[in-house]
Fold this protein.
Amino acid sequence: MNNPALSKINSSFVRKSGVNRRLDSGFRILGIASTAFGLVVLLVLIIDIFLDGADRIKWDFFVSFPSRKPELAGILSAWVGTVWIMVLTALIALPLGIGAGIYLEEYARKNYLTNFIEINIANLAGVPSVIYGLLGLGLFVRYFNLDRSVLAGGLTLALLILPVIILSTREALRAIPSSIREASYALGATKWQTVQHQLFPAALGNIMTGVILAMSRAAGETAPLITIGALTYIAFLPQSPVAFSGGFPFIHFSLQGLFDPFTVLPIQIFNWVSRPQKGFFADAAAGIIVLLGLTLIMNAIAILLRHHYQKKVRW
Amino acid sequence: MNRFLRLSIFGIMAIFLSCVFSAGEVFAASKLVKIDGSSTVFPITEAVAEEFQKQYSGIKVMVGISGTGGGFKRFGRGETDISDASRPIKPKEVDLAKENNIKYIELPVAYDGLSVIVNPKNTWVDYLTVKELKKLWEPSSQGVITKWSQIREGFPDKEIRLFGPGTDSGTFDYFTEVICGKSAASRGDYTASEDDNVLVEGIASDTQALGYFGLAYYEQNKDKLKIVPIDDENDANGIGPITPSLKSVMDDTYQPLARPIFIYVSTKAAEKDEVKKFVEFYLKNAKDLVTEVGYIPLSDESYKAALERFQKRITGSVFGRKGATVGVKMEELLRMER
């Protein structure tokens, strides 16, 4: 066994494997360090925010309007505005986005035009949000004369998340094996029946995940709403859509609130941060905690939905 | 079962739609006062709006922050009832309002002192003259005046780092007008921010810094900033360097960096009951609220005169078409108001 050639190969192998092992553990440490860096920075930020703002998180903070006195100021008009805008954005962007996604993935013929449209949608998803704000200002606020209303804000944010919803719908449909489509057609189903009974239910989990992630992005958007001019002190709520009073039929609905001015959480936070008084920093920090909580809840719902639908789909 | 579900959903939607179109009178038409404009005037108008809405619960007031120029653009198109302004209306803005047939009443509501600020560790600056400020900030100084020693002999041979508001700000318009002689004529190589807290933090953390912004931001951050007295070398306005304060602004000795700030009310809007109530409430309660949010109030007579001006619907600007005017004295304003 004492072959000199073999022992030479052997020693070079040992030497090399030693280097590789060291490289391996080195990369491991590097990976841990970079993960830790991100986590520590995030943790420091969150702790800092909590130290500043946790005292302000009380019932009163949620049911008070903003005020010039930091200790009395609250986020009532801001969170109600955020809910209005979110609901409206979802109502507008969901049917349009999912519809367009299904069309482009299942119906549209593959040619230069659809290619062109696809590339543009992918690009739109990466356009800075302030550009959408300018579009909203020119189109909805000025041209359609909607003024700085809930409707103008909702439409602008719907435009912002539309490309993301279209893309995630298409991704979700593409992930479904083509054997499912073929099986459905083989049984004599039409295209719409295939989409309705097979593809859409199967894709719903992933679509909803994309939608909710897009919505939580919209919830935190400030730039487009400031651009359409919603940087405003507002100490009232949009007209409620339902009222229980008056004559028959005793429950009344109104869409007047759509045309009322509004404010949202990120704008309220922005407003407070730019004040000279120290007390408003605590208010801003508390507002950030609420916004953080809101996005965390939305992301958690996205994860739960995906989990739920993944379990449900069985062919 | 499925069919039943669909039918009921359809039914609910039909009821919903019919209600939407039948329920007009249940929802009282809301009264809304629309205000937009200067971020400098904003804290005052916000305070007034807050108190006003406590007293008149049926009236809604919205106060936007678009800057003085942005506010006048909307006001001139008739989009707002009242415009907050940290400088008088400019000729271009007057023309826009005229085009859209909008007449306005100009009402001074408070004074604002602009403060020139350095770092507390800056031991060499005890005061600055208007000429020295001009030398420092005029457009031709860009890239030329870069060291403290170039401003006055005896100042150290250290780099000077400048902070100031951005070009959309009325504060920028006013400062450049009175210091450099022309509105918006300023060097561009300084740290500009529309957010005054950025300027505060910048100057507080840099021993070689100098900057300017509204007095209210200095008052809230006294512990980490040093204010510079200003000498306009005109003994009629008080002799020697003057530090901005309640007193020096009110008796017109802190010149030229003290300015009156305004609201502009559209006469068409003033016919509406809610706007009329709001403006009267504003002028009657301004004194306490102005002090509370860190600005300097006008004298009692001035508020009375402004109220009279509003009630008589005296339109137009007392500044003619000149825009910002150096060292406007409230007595002069009053005389023009009568």
